[in-house]
Amino acid sequence: MKFFETRHLTKHFGGLTAVNDINFEVEKGEIYGLIGPNGSGKTTLFNLITGYHPSSSGEILFQGQPIHRLSTWKICKLGIGRTFQIAKPLRRMTVLENVMTSAFNRAPKKSEAMEKAMEVLEFCELASKKDNSAKGLTIGDRKRLEIARALATAPELLLLDETMAGLTPQEQTAGAELIRKIRDSGITIIIVEHIMHVIMNICDRLLCINYGQEIARGTPAEVANNQAVIEAYLGK
Ligand code: ADP
Question: Which of 40, 47, 209, 213 has the lowest tally of Cβ within 10 angstroms?
């Protein structure tokens, strides 16, 4: 049984095919990168995997189970968590309250949700800021909070959407360390990221898409040297 795979996954928005016959599989324990120029369909792919958009055709299988007709809530319960490209913490709440809101998805009792939230905040090195208002956080901490909220849903597969955008080089290094630490804790990761040196460093394998279609896949070195990838990024 494959840990995660898509088969002929396709999404049309009216006349636009945002995701076009995408087939890829992710092995348990790897960090799998999804790259492509702006508008190539990466976020739409995440939205299909997590049930935010229904697919037009094709299948998504998680641990052998078809999930492409399930609700976002059921998909979350099965163990797929995600972050969003634009981190939107609940600004009036504290850091801890934000993470607890997510933890309630998997731990209905308040004491359990609190325990899970604290565990995740320690893991993400945000515990010292647990009582801070989410509103006042730096971009770096806001991105960490976004990851913490996704981790609080206790995922086995975590989808990270541009968690490095806007970070300083030091914050990027710390962010990459956190992602490796998440993987080392047993969580499989699919990551969308524009900062190439980060993605090339942390991913085991990559899929590159353009106009919704696969143009290359392989190890970071293979993908980086692929002519179709170079042309897609140079806009030829
Ligand atoms: P990426 O994440 O790679 O930048 P997206 O998945 O956001 O790309 O977008 C892929 C294409 O689908 C773009 O042309 C975008 O305009 C279009 N698109 C995305 N979401 C919608 C939507 N909800 N309705 C219509 N078109 C959409």
Answer: 213
